[in-house]
Design a protein that fits this description.
Blueprint lengths: L1 E5 H11 L4 E4 L6 H13 L3 E4 L3 H13 L4 E5 L2 H5 L1 H10 L3 E7 L15 H5 L10 E3 L4 H18 L2 E7 H5 L1 E5 L33 H17 L6 E4 L6 E4 L3 H15 L4 E6 L1 E3 L3 H8 L3 E6 L4 H10 L6 E5 L8 H17 L3
Parallel strand pairs: 2-3, 2-4, 4-5, 5-7, 6-7, 10-11, 10-13, 13-14
Antiparallel strand pairs: 1-8, 6-12, 9-11
Helix pairs in contact: 1-2, 1-7, 3-5, 10-13
Length: 354
């Protein structure tokens, strides 16, 4: 079955196909359609929808539902996600699953409701306290807004860890064709850790506090080992990178603009490709390293270089020239800007005889 929907609606559809039991949230532009549609779809299917008094309440309602082994989610943007950070840290510390969708707007502060990607570090580096990580998925289309929401639930329960789906405001409002999933996600087994008021789950304990320092250190070590295991989930899309002299790196709406730029530049004989990380954590570092050797990198993003900094970090000793093309404040990058920047970089390299 095919539907023509916004990215925000695709998130709700994906959550339902994932078997999500409960939605807790508070509306905020440009993510409001997620709460609005969840309030319609969830009760109609016998599932729970509750508009919390605020975003802080939302994340702790999710915590409670997750403790009982329920598939739960919330969604917000910018300031709302900031208010949730303590709760996300608690989820990670208690090893509880839950999906948080962030339709990113500009910041810092209230900013405005235009598209930006300034929440990259907040999600990827973890904005709450402690030594924790969140799984972070970055859709590039309406179809992926659905598919990666389903995947977020699967990975969140597989690793008992909070998972983000992050997209910019343009992608949340974009309307495209969505092919509905064929089958719902299999329901995860939770009896070994959830607390469900039954004799079977009575021995289970949900907590994020360990008062004895050595015990707390061991808990942190166990979490780090889990995050290391997550690296097998790293994924990226490679587009015309095989023979490229320069590779664009982008996610979300900038990746769509970059893909158009690649096609146009190829028409003019310039060998350019696109590397699109689908998982921002774990980052597809090995894939990036394998395609970056001997090439120039141009990172295209709607933030102050947060993705660029990670690209440099993950390239490590395999250093290649890394450049940045960016806008902030809600201004989209134009395809023509990308083309002009690429032509300049390749011309300079040619003039230098490199």
């Amino acid at each position: 079955m095919i539907k023509f929907v916004k990215g925000n609606e695709a998130v709700v559809i994906g959550a339902l196909y994932a078997g999500c039991d409960a939605y807790f949230g508070y509306p905020i532009t440009p993510a409001s359609e997620i709460a609005h549609l969840a309030s319609e779809y969830f009760p109609a299917l016998g599932k729970e929808f509750l508009q919390a008094e605020c975003e802080t309440g939302s994340i702790y309602m999710l915590f409670g539902a997750a403790s009982a082994g329920k598939l739960a989610m919330t969604a917000s943007s910018g300031p709302g996600i900031s208010l949730m950070q303590e709760g996300v840290s608690y989820l990670a510390g208690a090893e509880l699953p839950g999906v948080i969708v962030n339709i990113m707007r500009t910041g810092p502060g209230l900013g405005n409701v235009g598209p930006e990607q300034g929440d990259y570090n907040q999600a990827v580096k973890s904005g709450g306290h402690g030594n924790y990580r969140s799984i972070v998925l970055a859709p590039g289309s309406v179809q992926e807004m659905c598919d990666l929401t389903i995947k977020a639930f699967a990975l969140s329960f597989k690793y008992r860890n909070p998972a983000y789906v992050i997209a910019d405001a343009v992608l949340g409002q974009t309307m495209e064709t969505l092919v509905l999933p064929t089958n719902p996600m299999p329901r995860p087994e939770v009896k070994d850790w959830a607390v469900q008021g039954t004799a079977e789950t009575r021995p289970n304990l949900i907590t994020s506090i360990i008062l004895e320092p050595k015990g707390q250190e061991q808990h942190n070590i166990k979490l780090q080992e889990k995050y290391e295991k997550m690296k097998v989930e790293a994924s990226a899309e490679l587009y015309k990178t095989e023979d490229a002299d320069l590779i664009l790196v982008a996610y979300g709406t900038p990746s769509r603009l970059s893909r158009s730029a690649v096609d146009e530049l190829r028409k003019h004989g310039l060998k350019v490709g696109l590397f699109r990380p689908i998982t921002l954590y774990p980052f597809p570092a090995e894939q990036l390293q394998s395609v970056a050797k001997g090439k120039q990198i141009l990172v295209v993003e709607l933030s102050n270089g947060q993705l660029r900094d990670d690209v440099i970090l993950h390239l490590g000793m395999n250093q290649v020239p890394v450049y940045l093309l960016n806008h902030m404040g809600g201004i989209l990058i134009r395809v023509e800007e990308i083309i002009e920047k690429v032509e300049t970089l390749l011309t300079v390299k040619a003039v230098n005889g490199e």
